[in-house]
């Protein structure tokens, strides 16, 4: 499934919508477990990681995930940490400016990847404190898996 990239406005709206009142280690476990269940149901060969303030709270690699997925997670997480937006948002900002993330930022692509799949954990009235990351699917699908899990988590 190859989807068109969402607009920057759509991505900004998701970040506004998906803000939490708090985020504990237990929340990370519940959210991560829900992501694993969804990925298993879909047969998705993904790796998942959830961190808060650079502290890994949850990590899983499903059947078919590879060590490359762990490297992608690190690179996408650095984008969220540096810019405070989803990795897809940061990449889309460059695309909408008619350039690439690498050209616009000047950051080392071996360390930073503005590809979809990393979403900030945003605490309302605080700001970004961590990231939820999926790697293993096409980047828009990685992003959508995280967004769907966060929506379900907020609704739960």
Describe this structure in words.
The protein has helices spanning 8-17, 25-42, 67-83, 87-96, 101-105, 139-155; strands spanning 19-20, 47-52, 55-61, 118-123, 127-135. The protein has a five-stranded mixed beta sheet with strand order 1-4-5-2-3. The protein starts with 7 loop residues before the first helix and ends with a helix. It is built from six helices and five strands. The protein has one domain: Beta-Lactamase (2-Layer Sandwich), CATH 3.30.450. It is globular, with a radius of gyration of 14 Å. It has 156 residues and is α+β, with helices and mostly antiparallel strands. The longest helix is centred in the first third of the chain and has 18 residues, at 25-42.
Jot down its keywords:
156 residues; alpha+beta; Beta-Lactamase; globular
Query: Structural class of the secondary structure composition?
Result: alpha+beta
The CATH topology is given as Beta-Lactamase
Radius of gyration: 14 Å
Strand content: 15-25%
In a few lines, what is going on in this structure?
By secondary structure, this protein is of the alpha+beta class. It has helices spanning 8-17, 25-42, 67-83, 87-96, 101-105, 139-155, and strands spanning 19-20, 47-52, 55-61, 118-123, 127-135.
Which secondary structure elements does this structure contain, and how are they paired or packed?
Elements: H1 8-17, E1 19-20, H2 25-42, E2 47-52, E3 55-61, H3 67-83, H4 87-96, H5 101-105, E4 118-123, E5 127-135, H6 139-155
Parallel strand pairs: 1-4
Antiparallel strand pairs: 2-3, 2-5, 4-5
Helix pairs in contact: 2-6
